[in-house]
Amino acid sequence: MKRLLTLLAFIILSTTSFAQTTIMSFKAMGHDDDETVYGMSGATSFYFKITPQYELNGSKLVIYFEPSQALIREKSYVNLFIGAKPVYSARLTKDSIQKISINLTRADVSPDNYLKIAVKTLLTITDDQCRDLDNPAMWLKIKNYSYLSLVKSNKNFFNNINISNCFDSKTAIVYPSNPTLHDLKAVAWAYSRLKKTQQKNIRVYENNKLPDTVRNYIMVGNISSLPANKRPLVKVTPQNNQGLFYLHKAISTVTDTITRMVDVKGRLLPVKSVSQEVVPTEILFVTGGDDAGYEKTITALGNMNILNSTFGDYLLVNKAQNQFFKTVDENRSKLSLKQIGGVSDFLSGIGSLKSAFNFKNSDFSFTPKEVEIRIVANYSSLNPGDRGFFNIYLNGLLLSSEKLDASGKLNTTVTINRYQHHKYNTLEAEFRFYPNNGNCKNSFTNFFAEVDVDKSYLESKNPFITSDLSFYQYPEAFNSGVTKIVVTKDYAKYAAGAMGEIIYELNNNINANNFPEFVYSVDVPPADLKKNNIIALLSKDDKMFKEFPDAPINFERNFRLYNTDNNTIVYSLSDTTSNGLAQIFYGRSNNATLVLTATGKHLAEAFLSASKSITEQLSTLSSNVCISDVNNNKYLFNINKSSDNLEYIDTKSAITRFWDSYNLYILLAILVLILLSFLYVRSKVQKSQELFND
């Protein structure tokens, strides 16, 4: 057991290479928490994208699971499917943590290079199946330290890797040390493209700060601005007014330190050694013969159809456009469940049968105030005495419940208000079926149901309009009209990663067609700040702040932000810690405006932290100021003209500022003086009494 725990701890902590084998835990691949399978007959699925550098022959899947302590182990079963093929079935054992190990082959991967893993259970707590149906102790956890052991393969490396599939393995973007607006735009769209492949930790480097250990990345820049040691790698030369994607591939031998787990007296211990390893190198160049051609390449970055259909090592771009045809519902106020990614699940059995659908506020063209949820479904008709119900849940809360009947047809509606839905939502449609007289032993497959994802829909009834803009309305507040991304010229090199987060969020919906303009703050006419939506990444000293009189925070004056619960200072402009400050508000023409500011030594990290913080599932509907630091600490504020949690220090007199800074010390000194005076008077009185008595 000690060996097992040591190995599991090792897997959780890192993704490790050993003799050309990469161990990738479920947690490292996006499943941060254990996956729980509920019910007597439950199921859960995992989808993992297998990138071309891995060879499935010789690779292995290892799953650890923890069954409920209440189960009768010898009457409970776990089944494992890869794709549609069953590969493992067994009774549960007595162990608290159990293990399944399966060898993988090329046949296990789908044509689109996904590995689908399904775990299905049949669990027992008592000998009466009918009593087990809704027992809350019916569960089994798939542990997040389960892993894939994937064999790295250089075989067919040059043939298998191309532009269409190379994005899946890239985790870094490299740009010139003194980037132009074209470079920033290229980084932003490349970042957005990488994030759509579900990459979590995307790194952004200046080309002179690229670590030697990073060998698989995207490099952006005009052909003339590429580093001298990288320019010869591009074997195709674009002409003027011509863009170019070029994928450089090479195999090189590197000396590296590898870690092996060695069994020492029953314990697995890490042992490091120096080894030479043959590794592939991939660089995708995003470039052009001149600025006009470079811009065409950047435009093509935003077109998934072009990238997904480029199966060669280079693509010359002579013409690039991003024109998305609008649907009949131009305002995107009505979305079918199929549009938001829903699939028709055929549900059969007894007890609770659920289908889940995920949607975002930004899927609509505006933040919805009310959303009508209409579910259309078919189900097997109920016999006399059968009990059937249909329930709708949103984010785990029950919204509605109704009885099923003999018709076999369901068409139901429920409307939710703005307090019930969040920025990111999970909608669950649940059928609950119990046969006549509770006789369920022969009825587990008698009931079936299916939600019609084409006819079922979500419809926004009213836009959520307020006098003050909040992060709850980001990014959909920028869906209509033209958006400009503005940056302080001296801070441009630090803003690339944050721009990538912004571009991703503006297009993280079912109709991604938001292509903002990029411009330096010194080049923006004041009139443009009124007629366009503005997203600005500025230094706190940028003169553009004078054009934002409606901003919650004025950076021309020193200020402090307080926690209204305990009146403690949360943030002060004079802080030396690297902080990012984001504020969102309406401009003078009711245009959406978002301003991000960074302070301290680590400006790039501060900008990136602020851009990530405002996209999270926020707990309040009215926050318009966010403070975040490079250590992932975050504070949200709702600041308006009457706020008591904002204080401008320079509006006070010198005496008032002195009192605010030292009032506790002054009061303490006064108390000490009072105490000393009391003791002095008391001693004098005692001496007087002694003289009187004498």
Automatic annotation (TrEMBL):
Membrane topology listed for this record: Single-pass membrane protein
Domain of life: Bacteria
Cellular component aspect of the GO annotation: plasma membrane
The keyword Cell division is assigned to this record: no
Any single GO BP term: UDP-alpha-D-glucose metabolic process
UniProt entry keywords in alphabetical sequence: Cell membrane, Membrane, Signal, Transmembrane, Transmembrane helix
Subcellular location: Cell membrane
InterPro entries xref list: Cell_synthase_bac
One Pfam family this sequence matches: BcsB
Transmembrane portions of the chain: 662-681
Signal peptide: 1-19
Protein name: Cellulose biosynthesis cyclic di-GMP-binding regulatory protein BcsB
Native source species: Mucilaginibacter gilvus
